[in-house]
Hints:
- The complex is a heterodimer of chains A (351) and B (163).
- Chain A is mainly alpha-helical and 351 residues long.
- Chain A has helices at residues 3-27, 31-58, 83-88, 93-106, 108-111, 137-155, 157-160, 166-175, 187-205, 207-212, 215-237, 242-253, 265-280, 288-291, 322-335, 345-350; strands at residues 114-121, 125-134.
- Chain B has six helices and four strands.
- Chain B is mainly alpha-helical.
- Classes of the chains: A mainly alpha (351), B mainly alpha (163).
- The interface between A and B is large, with 52 and 51 residues.
Amino acid sequence: MDFFKRHFSVAFLAVIGLVVIAFIGVKANLQLLFGVVIPYLAILIFIEGLVYQIIRWLRSPVPFRIPTTAGQQRSLGWISRDLGEKLDNPANTMQTLGRMALEILAFRSLFRNLRAELREMPETYAGGKLVYWSYKWLWLGAIAFHYAFLVVLLRHLRFVTEPAPAFVNLLGEVDGFIQFYVPTVYLSGIVLVVAGLYLLLRRIYTPTLRYISLAADYFPLLLIISIATTGILMRYFIKVDITAVKELVIGLATFKPKVVPGIGVILYIHLFLVCVLFAYFPFSKLMHMPGVFLSPTRNLPNNNRAVMHVNPWNYPVKFHPYLEHEAAYREAMYEAGLPVEILPESAEKEE
Amino acid sequence: MSKNGDYKNEFGYFAERPQVASKLYDSKYVLAGLVIFLLVIILPLVPNLGKSVPAPKPDLNTPAIMKLPEKERKCVMELEYMRASHMQLLNDWRDQVVRDGNREFTGAGGKKYLISLQNTCLECHSNKTKFCDQCHNYAAVVPNCWGCHLDREKKQVARAEAK
């Protein structure tokens, strides 16, 4: 098995295995385990792991600015900077907040994505010309995926709250505005699956990407695609008693958990995959969610030259001055005819 | 150089190992962010914390149902199917009537029914607020039935007023 097959099949079989585990578990009447114990455990691991990882990150000092910037930095007064340059190369807190907002809300750095390709230009370049050109599909796929996921997550608040907040109802109305099918199709669900599949296929079909993709890259994507697929199956095709589902979930949310009978297996598969996602979160690449806030190349103003930065672990250096060096080798240096500052005693005797 | 930063030559160590203070750097901002994140997670749970939210109880006590003998108090399909998939059934009914002109439905027990939301469903379940709305409000579902169909309660009120 080659590198790709090994890494992809591990992730793929893991997701299939999780589905099978949930299926068998519910068939064996372990609703208490899959409906109550595992969800609580997953949330506990999620919060505890998240806090632990962030505290661990906090132990690393970041004393200097890393100006990976594209834009004129603040300089002499007569060198003008437009808004784009201020946001790309911020000099103060407000501008840095602007850069962070662009990064977190609009995925600015993915918008800069380039792709190298060999362009056939037989008249001018034999063998083609290597060009780097803007490639926005990654940005589009990523932003569609993340916002769709956010909308899906917020819509699920209707299971956790009673009564559901007005904005959740509004979100559901906007999301299902095409009023197609029964129950109304939510666009965010479709966008989530399509964008997730794009991000997965991109890893599989681009040779350079496949070369650097590991099981830890495929697994979250496959897991999220499976979660969205089971959710869509449950809403439109293999229906479950939604009132009973809400009873189960709100029981968890009010810390008065109870097993509600009469819920289809598909709900438990969906729930178990979500639990695995939450429990897996703190130990995976998904930590880019809190991590993006702590990116040193994004969240620090580029004031390397304007402000003095002192290395916090500067230690007292023991210098070895020239005179000490000469004192150690004076005789030998003198004999070799090298110039010395102080003549050795033997030389004084000769005189 | 056994350890990072221990630079040794024939005169011995001339630099000590860098001393990096073991502490949480920039903790003021990051911990504040962490607390905000945890609060945002907990926020939706707060209104119902410590309370037990009662499950909805759709009310079957209507004159039409009570009139039926005990054995015949059954819906057009089994309870489990109706709970999970009644919206699908209603949608299929709509398509059958509007597109094929078929107004006959054979139920789970082989009994034939007239396909009609207002005349069949709402005949028995004449109490929309105590039946339909119970679960719909609980699950925050807004079906668009009532955009076109009259709800029986209103009709009865209107009739009563006319009298």
